[in-house]
UniProtKB/TrEMBL annotation:
It comes from the Bacteria. Residues 10-308 form the Enoyl reductase (ER) domain. Keywords: Oxidoreductase. It comes from Halobacillus seohaensis. This is NADP-dependent oxidoreductase. GO terms for molecular function: oxidoreductase activity. It holds the Pfam family ADH_zinc_N_2.
Amino acid sequence: MRAVVIEQYGGKEKLVEREVPIPKIEDNQVLIELHATSINPIDWKLREGYLQEKLDFDFPITLGWDAAGIIKDVGADVQKFKVGDRVFARPELSRFGTYAEYTAVDENLLSHIPEEVSYEEAAAVPLAGLTARQCLVDFANIQEGDKVLVHAGSGGVGHYAIQIAKSFGAYVATTASGRNQEWVEKLGVDRFINYKEEDFANVLSDFDIVIDTLGGEIQEKSFGILKKGGRLASIVQPPDEGTMQEHEVEGAFVWLEPDGEKLAQLANLMVKGEMVSKVGHHFDFSEASLREAHELSETHHAVGKIVITI
């Protein structure tokens, strides 16, 4: 099968197309013929070598951890899925990723793709959508009426976080650039902040939850808008213990734990029309296109998700 791999760490030019064996599945796995995958920052961070202490894989490494496609084979112990099912998943992190024509995925990480949802829309969801859900639900225990600030609401995790928070009946503020205001507001945002014109720290206060997708000074300033007992979930860096104690708030660095049942809950939101995927950029499945997609992701200015059609 065709796959785009890296054979050493480095820049986007290290992405090369190769012929590799179709994965052999375990008894608890299915073989997916991939129709789409998507780009996430973890892809190029691992490509550059930034994550090698945490993810010490042997080369060659096939990047990509969003899968959407059709089941072509099932292991002996698989019970809830069959050949021909349309499924999506965030597979376990391994050196056998989803920049490929086929991938093997554990049954417990799978969810059916609703009929109303395309492969591209589905492929955008798993890593970013589950990350947003884990921040809001599993860590922050979001409740109806909570005030939630989502940083970078036009990004992959951000636009899902807005919609998940609104599905719980939260009041949602978000930061983004003015060029993204119209479509972000259509997601249900109650307070849009053009970060180039307004400082969120000067206009917001007494918030229950902050979703930090940026880190650094933004994270530091975010503590000041939380009420006592508020929660800050960061996907980029661990919150400072001293700062949390000073403001009497809680914080966590969220590293995604994939889960098929939780992904099915997001699929249900899509069926109900409460969550959509903003696929801002499409690329085909080739060495050159993946290099271009990585370059775009590294700018931090992609609109919504970057999706690869296979």
